Amino acid sequence: MNTRTFAGIPADFAKLEYAKIVLIPVPYDGTSTWQKGADKGPTAFLNAADNMELYDIETDTEVYKQGVFLTDPVTENASPESMVDAVHETTKKYINKNKFVTLFGGEHSISIGTIRAFNECFNNLTVLHIDAHADLRESYEGSTCNHACAVFEANQTTNLVQVGIRSMDISERRWINNDKVFFAHDMAVNEFWMEDVMDQLTTNVFITFDLDAIDSSLLPSTGTPEPGGLFYYETLEFLKKVFEAKNVVGFDMVELCPNPNEKSSDFLAAKLYYKMLSYKFAKNDDEYEVEKITEDSPFAKLSKINKKGEEEQ
Ligand SMILES: [Mn+2]
User: Fold this and answer.
1) Can you give the pTM of this predicted structure?
2) At what angle do helices 80-95 and 110-121 cross, to 10 degrees?
3) Ligand 1 center to residue 97 CA distance, Å?
4) How far apart are CA 157 and CA 159, in angstroms?
5) Which protein residues have their CB within 5 A of the ion that is ligand 1?
6) pLDDT at 308
7) d(Cα 49, Cα 188) in Å, to the nearest integer?
8) What is the pLDDT of residue 288?
9) 66 in helix, strand or coil?
10) For the chain, which domains are there?
11) Distance between CA atoms of 137 and 81, rounded to whole angstroms?
């Protein structure tokens, strides 16, 4: 029996019946291409969280009192596809219990399952993809469930908005939607990038946060650290705007690849996770309700792929 609680919070706040928030660890690292170790991300994140102050100065809240239930980790790893199925099923199970569901990876391929679950439960879903990498490959190294394909499906089935992108393959260019991709080199010279991103979001927003979006000087412990990333306070300012203006329905955080000699990355991840919860529940009376998807959802059946594929022929 796992008696560990998120951030060492008292057991009363960590019970499933009480908790508004669910945290699902997914220690998966089956497809990463360069530095292995994202499977150790959840443990490093939880260890860092144990040492974090639980009062958030900025929002003047103690969000853990909303309750955080830490699930057993999803450990299915027979294949990338079976891992994605297991994540999809577990995520959906807790969304259907009316919980605010969050996940900690693991590499980015876990988000294929996460996003599929959220897209089945919420109308007109925007997937806000914060990452150094476009992750729009249709398949990679023989699998469509590779980390390099993390948002390919989301690009077909949801309103995908990408922020912080500074690395991609030329083959991914055909899937890029110019209005909805915010490249890091453009953001660096556009003081209104946050407002421009906000204009692209629908009301229901799921955030998939690849930690390599953060500048590698602040967060070096990630599989593929890319220079030129987001800094801490601009990240917080942006997230706060999103949480205030939109209905954020859940989020995942991926690609922490811990280094035992460098703890600041783990701690940044823990603080960022807690900040996002603090922003979500800052005006805390709003009840969290799952909205059932309906047939007339404009994104439910939308496939940009076919359209684009036809155009290309
Ligand atoms: Mn990435």
Assistant:
1) 0.91
2) 40
3) 30
4) 7
5) 131-133, 210, 212
6) 44
7) 31
8) 53
9) helix
10) 17-312 (3.40.800.10)
11) 16
